[in-house]
Amino acid sequence: MVTVNLGVLHYLVDHIYGACVHRTKLSTPFFSRGWGGSKLDLLERAIKQLFPDAVGCNWPPSVVQPQWKTVWESKTACLREGIFKTPCDELLIHALPPESHTARVAFLAPRFVPPHKMACVVHLAGTGDHTFERRLRLGGPLLKENIATMVLESPFYGQRRPRLQRGSKLLCVSDLLLLGSATIVEARSLLHWLENEAGFGKTGICGLSMGGVHAAMVGSLHPTPIAILPFLSPHSAVAAFCEGILQHATAWEALREDAAQNAEMTLEQVRERMRSVLSLTDVTRFPIPKNPQAVIFVAATDDGYIPKHSVMELQRAWPGSEVRWVTGGHVSSFLLHNDHFRKAIVDSLDRLPWKESLS
After folding, report:
1. Mapping DSSP to helix (H, G, I), strand (E, B) and coil, where does residue 87 land?
2. Which of 78, 259, 275, 326 is the most buried (most CB within 10 A)?
3. Which helix (H) or strand (E) holds 206?
4. InterPro entries under this entry (predicted)?
């Protein structure tokens, strides 16, 4: 009888999937057009505005009023889709591709339940999640718990994808920072809408992988306690692109050649520059959330994309937060552990008090 180590098997699945998706020539790698030139310098300055020294002066966010249309209704639930102009400031709007200027959301909610007796969680996109469907499937069973789901389509993804971009492979490093910056701004405005316009009794933010990093940032910046749920997420994009499988999907040579226009660099120096740039995404540099007990990380035991130490770095930075481990790799956990993600959402919201009704 052959004994199979399931941990090794899950880890291998990640690497086999990564080899098929990232190491073949069927698609371009990430950042095939380089760093992003002067746009990268502008973004580095803009992103620093999100860090703790500026937190107190950027709330409330820009108001958004989505234009809604009903997709379907049943006896117990309703799905609507909405659009709104991104509330980013002029610097970010100028840097974003035109296709990303209009944001899209899906909103799945119970019917005939007063908003102040419901919770709503905003779900942010992981790498490669171009549609609403997967996140709506995750949130759908939570309707019976009176938990609504709002799904944001990321800039550079879905109908917001630039014409020249293929799939999820961002063309420049600056695009990754742009995607994150705009997602954070838009998610903060949506939370403000849910709390102050729609009147929900509790709110939360969650995301898988890249979406979990953005969710952690949004939650840390929120002025009041909310549920924060990073799933299969690192503490920083450094862990994903410089340590995990995505390092094999990165156009290091193209980045070296782009950098050589100013100074000759070795590949090792290119990697160090990448670490420096992506350190802007280090969530441990962000404030501790208002209620760390309502932060639940769900991580995989054998994740080929996200090192274990990266998960623990953020948990240590936010004392009182909780890490839950599921058995599997990045890919298998994404496919098999939705029930664990839903349980974390319910438990995190249960750790928050209900807001008083304004009616």
Report:
1. coil
2. 326
3. strand 202-208
4. AB_hydrolase_fold, ABHD18
